[in-house]
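Sample intake sheet
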Amino acid sequence: MKICIIAEGSYPYITGGVSSWIHSIITRMPEHQFIIYAIGAHSKQKGQYKYKLPANIVEVKEIFLDAYMYEEGEWGRRFRLTNSKKKDIRALLGGEGDVNWSNIFNLLRSNKFERVADFLSSKDYFDILEDICRTDFNLVPFTEMFWTVRSMILPLFLTIRHEVPQADLYHSVSTGYAGVVGALAKHVHEKPLILTEHGIYSREREEEIIKADWVKGYFKDLWIEYFYRLSSCAYESSDRVITLFSRNKEIEIELGCDPDKISIIPNGVNTEDYKDISAIPDDDIIRIGAVVRVVPIKDIKTMLQSFLIVKREVPNAELYIMGPIEEDDEYYSECLSMVKTLELEDVHFTGEVNIKDYLGRMDILLLTSISEGQPLAVLEGMACAKPFVTTNVGSCKELLTGLGDGIGPAGLVAPVMHYEQIGQALIQLSKDSNLREEMGRNGLERVQRHYKHKDFITSYRHLYQTLGGVRGWQESASS
């Protein structure tokens, strides 16, 4: 069978998390061929893979969302859109009503215009946008509205214009642009679509936009609704929607996903992979480790503030922040400045490392994200019998406390951005070696019982075979 995995902002450019998840599926299913449809943020990422691609990846198609910066169109043409297409464009731009995505796909992929920018410079588009301005943004200058909406939708429109490789089955690993590409693939090739949602993409974008300085206040709702519409496209088009835990399923239903489509397949780890990690050094240092990318959604700044509280009572504590630092250079610089301003000592940004070389040496593991799905970093830490302090995001509380499984807690949970409570939880564990050992044992037992990697792979293998079918695999092999 030939399976096209559609990934946004992850594999093969970034390690860990969703990327590790994708790599694991591909390497554990050598009987299938895979195409990677990789959606990156910046063209400079082209060909910069962080993984050695397995032999059963037969193609990598790369597109980059910053391509819109180079798109110019011819001003003032008219394309004589039908009323239904006008209605769908208006709905997509923030107007009322549902979007008929088939109309959007057919319009943007037609030969009516050579470039997307031609449409966005047309009289048809001006009329639609002017109507939205008069109705909902009558106090906003039209030029400001025009350039804001253009920057919002042009990357999407350019993405829709790209060709989608033929496959027996399509698998989007988020909503957003990846979800729309999956819906487009189903529309063009009439093949099944699976959607796996690790975190709730639209909720994550909403949190980012609310905090963003680059979006003016009166345009925040416009951007937020736009990402919810992209998610609706993926939910509507998917044949099956997979999430990782029950709370995410509830949110997807709230957002309009058909509950009959949704199944839960949790992540899994192979505890045998971690049985030979190094031991904790025999000294008086308390090592706190965080396996994270240094990006805003992981909230490294709250992590640093909580560690400042720890240092006041546990002066022998050290913090190891283990993960890529180059994804957001500005944020990394801000974190370094905070370390200096707070006069924090014993903070180590390791950059990208082999995590197994570090995990065994840690006394406590830490995660301070403002949004998560079911983080593999937590499962991997539990597989190493390490106690955790996490924020109450995604399935972290469920992972650490269980759902009535009779196993004790594997760590402590604190509210998002509450560095005082996070710090106090770290102090509690730092001062109680027996509690650390007990929680570590509980975590190991929980992953061994409920989060087996072989169960995760078996579930997806069955899902692929059920939807892709033997006939589709045989046709691909013969061609």
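Comment: The longest strand covers residues 33-40. The chain has three domains: 2-69+163-267+455-478, 71-153, 272-451.
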